[in-house]
Amino acid sequence: FIAKPCALHVGIEDSGPYQAQPNAILEKVFVSITKYPDEQRLEGLSKQLDWDVRKIQCWFRHRRNQNKPPTLTKFCESMWRFTFYLCIFCYGIRFLWSSPWFWDTRQCWHSYPYQPLSSGLYYYYVMELAFYWSLMFSQFIDIKRKDFLIMFVHHLATIGLITFSYINNMVRVGTLVMCLHDASDFLLEAAKLANYAKYQRLCDTLFVIFSAVFVVTRLGIYPFWILNTTLFESWEMIGPYPSWWLFNGLLLILQVLHVIWSYLIARIAFKALIRGKVSKDDRSDVESSSEEEDVAAYTKGPQGSCPSNGASCVNGHMGGSHWAEE
């Protein structure tokens, strides 16, 4: 009701990917043998069907794209995530601003575990937990991406941390962890929205801001503020106990994931400096890189560019400014 009209307003078409021309022989190869035929197979199919090799390449490209969600669907999904991340971050900042442990992390362990659970803190936890459970299930029906396993581990660690900290009444430090992670997520979704709408300059600007916030929060504030209080201040004030090791183990897993993602973001930023704009997201779906190579090869051929539902053959994006989803 909200995201779709916004998408149409910025010029995103309400249409699916270009449908491949029905062909029983190519469909059998696609389903039973390979989605990416090699040169030898392409030559054989070309002789069998009396089609040009470029035409067969374009058919396989369109056929692969039929399984991908259209840009409109991805725009709506990103707008939903942007709205949630922004709202929950604002709620978290508003709640923590008046909390003593936001200004002094040692307050997280005063009188532990006999700390009251306010209604505001309870709702904060329930909303975050419900959202991450939804992400856990939805990733199995979304397009498969290169970082599927990393995201699966991340969601498991996050849900485990939220649940475990709630059961053990470590909710004070838990709110700090959640708010810190929400600080950069809405910026990434905003950059995606700008990319889908083909506002390249805005996309680049938002991505630069996101990169800076991500690195500062995940590689700076998180280890020196969050891990410092969970590893050292808690040890000093309440001492280690059996669940202390599990809790900090999950937090350290998150830190490892932060380093991996920072590396991927740095690669994108490096490419952006070379090309002058944000390139393809290295966490994108498995298909996208191959799609771009197909498009590049096809557009150099004698037949020119192939038809599609938008401006190019890559998910309705302009080939030069394509930036795939996370």
TrEMBL record:
It comes from the Eukaryota. Signal peptide: none annotated. It is found in: Endoplasmic reticulum membrane; Nucleus. Residues 73-274 form the TLC domain. PROSITE patterns: HOMEOBOX_2, TLC. One of its GO terms (molecular function) is DNA binding. It is a multi-pass membrane protein. One of its GO terms (biological process) is ceramide biosynthetic process. This is Ceramide synthase 5. Pathway: Sphingolipid metabolism; Lipid metabolism; sphingolipid metabolism. The gene is CERS5. Its main location: endoplasmic reticulum. Keywords: DNA-binding, Endoplasmic reticulum, Homeobox, Lipid biosynthesis, Lipid metabolism, Membrane, Nucleus, Transferase, Transmembrane, Transmembrane helix. GO terms for cellular component: endoplasmic reticulum membrane; nucleus.
